[in-house]
Specification:
The protein has about 475 residues and is α/β, with parallel strands linked by helices. About 40% of the residues lie in helices and about 20% in strands. The longest helix has 22 residues, at about 115-135.
């Protein structure tokens, strides 16, 4: 096919204000870690270090928890309207600094600037706006139940949507009258630390939000600490199980949003061209670094050949490369470790007998890159159709009947999301009842809104974030 020669359209990063070294944000101030240790956060597209970031140890975690516990007393006594004013102010400041946040998100995480600019940052601000509005209406959200705040919430977020996940966690916690200790992922801490600067500038009372950085050991210290009344974790199923054990030992309330292996189901009466775009968005958005990605594609036999031809043609148009270029569709894989995981699954897929298709993409020499990948001739028992890969890898299977695809779609330990493409509303309602998934999209995929709850079943976790359900996770009732 004809190749388009697009002119470069790089986003300017000169306006971004980044420090060479970041400390821990505890009790309203940035302070050096007791560990005196720092680690580099690296641009995955260039392999260049961006900044040094403090590594919190047990003493730092303890200090952050005590600061949050002390701040809880006055914060929980504030009226909901007053709490809402602070949350609203944070939302407005995120909007004002949205261009800076977007650039930092792409530099630190590797995702295309279009996605950071148009999805991550606006949605993060929208969550703060949404929960600012609920802060003085909790009695209306939960009538006759007398909602009360929990106390201190320890929150651990992943690297695929750093600022958005911080907003998902922090905004409802504050609206309900809780205080927070949050740890971003070690590979993408910068937007959370920029958010700490916003929180400081917004005048939020000291200790209400504390942001500490580190790797898995820091997160384990947070979960084991006796102060938190709530643990909120988004990440892998394996780590989620450890978090749950820690919550049980401390009798803490817990929500877990874990892995997924979503089924994207295409019926023969679906709008084919729109469906192709939905498939692309479902798996190649954010390099496939999405827990609810539509990584298992089920296509009705009668349209399989047409879908396959058009899907490959569309894959050939995807641009892989510099995340800061506005033309880029697929950016850098977040880390070398994750790229190794993806490449290992590509080998597994071939070894299992599946046929691999990758367009001939031009990719930079430096950085972590994986072209959009499609596996055909996939069996239901293949590991690439059962295990989460967390990369731009799609496994396609066929089906004949509704009953068959329901059985195949539910044959997974996960239950986070699914998608259904059809012209018939009756099919949509039949599948939304039958599919064991927390979120099911109809004739679209990867659509998020702060008013809509998100969460899963089985090994995809439990509890909901977003909507009124997201408030429930940070409240107790008489």
């Amino acid at each position: 096919m004809e190749e388009w020669n697009l002119s470069l359209a790089p986003e300017n990063a000169a306006h971004v204000q980044l420090k060479k070294k970041y400390e821990l944000f505890i009790n309203g101030e940035f302070q050096k870690p007791f560990s005196n240790k720092y680690f580099e956060t690296v641009n995955p597209a260039t392999e260049q270090a961006i900044a040094l970031v403090a590594e919190a140890n047990e003493k730092d975690v303890d200090q952050a928890m005590k600061a949050a516990a002390e701040a809880y007393k006055p914060w929980s006594k504030l009226s909901g309207a007053e709490r809402g004013k602070y949350i609203y102010r944070i939302a407005r400041m995120i909007q004002e600094k949205s261009r800076e946040f977007a650039v930092i998100e792409s530099l630190d995480g590797g995702k295309p600037i279009r996605e950071s600019r148009d999805i991550d940052i606006p949605l993060a601000a929208a969550h703060f706006f949404y929960y600012a509005g609920w802060a003085d209406k909790l009695e209306y959200a939960f009538p006759m139940r007398k909602p009360q705040s929990l106390g201190v919430a320890a929150q651990i977020i992943p690297w695929n949507f750093p600022l958005l996940m911080a907003a998902w966690k922090i905004a409802p916690a504050l609206a309900c009258g809780n205080t927070v200790v949050l740890k971003p992922a070690e590979t993408t801490p910068l937007t959370a630390l920029k958010l700490a600067e916003v929180i400081q500038e917004a005048g939020l009372p000291q200790g209400v939000v504390n942001i500490i950085t580190g790797a898995g050991k820091t997160g384990a210290e947070m979960c084991a600490h006796p102060i938190p009344n709530k643990l909120a974790f988004t990440g892998s199923t394996e780590v989620g199980k450890l978090v749950y054990k820690a919550a049980l030992s401390g009798n803490k309330k817990v929500t877990l949003e874990l892995g997924g292996k979503a089924a994207d189901i295409i019926f023969d009466d679906a709008p084919i061209d729109a469906t192709i775009e939905g498939i692309i968005n479902g798996i190649y958005f954010n390099q496939g670094h999405v827990c609810c990605a539509g990584s298992r594609l089920f296509v009705q036999e009668t349209v399989y050949e047409e879908i396959l031809v058009k899907l490959k043609k569309r894959m050939n148009t995807l641009i892989v490369g510099d995340p800061m270029d506005k033309n880029t569709d697929i950016g850098a894989i977040n880390s070398k470790e994750q790229l190794d995981v993806i490449n290992r699954y590509l080998k597994i897929g071939r070894a299992e007998g599946a046929e691999i298709y990758q367009p001939n993409c031009k990719m930079p020499e430096l950085g972590n890159w994986c072209p959009p990948t499609l596996f055909t001739n996939v069996a239901q028992s293949n590991r690439i159709s059962q295990e989460e890969i967390f990369g731009p890898v799609l496994a396609i299977q066929t089906f004949r009947t509704i009953e068959e695809v329901i059985d195949k779609a539910n044959n997974t330990p996960f239950g986070l999301s699914a998608g259904v493409w059809t012209d018939k509303g009756s099919k949509i309602f039949q599948l939304t009842k039958a599919l064991k998934a927390g979120v099911i999209w109809a004739n679209t995929f990867n659509k998020f809104d702060p008013t809509s709850p998100f969460g899963g079943y089985k090994e995809s976790g439990f509890g909901r974030e977003g909507g009124v359900h997201g408030l429930d996770a940070y409240l107790k009732f008489d």
